[in-house]
What we know:
Number of helices: 7
Helix content: 25-40%
Number of strands: 11
Oligomer: single chain
Distance between the termini: 35 Å
Strand content: 15-25%
Radius of gyration: 16 Å
Shape: globular
Structural class: alpha/beta
Strand order of the largest sheet: 2-1-5-6-10-9-11
Amino acid sequence: MPSPPVRPRPARPLRVHTVLYDGVEEQDFAGHIEVFGIVGEEHLVQSFVTADGTRRVTTSAGMEIVCRDAWSPRSADVVVVPGGGYGEGSGLQREIRRGTLPRALAAARRDGLVMGAVCTGTMLLSAAGLTTGRRCTTHHIAQEELRSQGGRVVGGRVVDDGDLVTCGGVTSGIDLGIWLIERFFGPGTALYAEEILEYQRRGIVNTA
């Protein structure tokens, strides 16, 4: 497999932390994880993290994933929060009620950090107060709630509001990953990822 045509970046790789929690949806994190892996570790390093530190997470389908890296958003360039279903009994609802992850996300915000979310993961950013007055989106079943909490819900499969990048439901996480690759590494790398995945991006990217 040929190397992707990555445009020059600073010497160190881009650092992406994907936040997991019990009940997280597999496809909500698998999409962008697969995309980012195409870039190669010399350009992009990925970590699974939890707000509770290193531990084992059980996904919505019962898959167990060991998160070995510490919660350290100050060492990340991008933090991505996947969804965990929606409504009563969902992993998402449990995390919002528990409050640990929303508080950790609120405290993580700083200049230079891009916060991203896939599907209902945007509702965790909303619970952290990070979407108030910001252009954003989520799965269509949660958009009205997101709007009622102060988010400026706009059209687009991916919505880029600078340091806040969100996307719609489930498979749109692939599109979010490809868009972030385009932002950081250029359109040639994004097209390369589409070719490797045999995937064509859908809908639009709504940019600020």
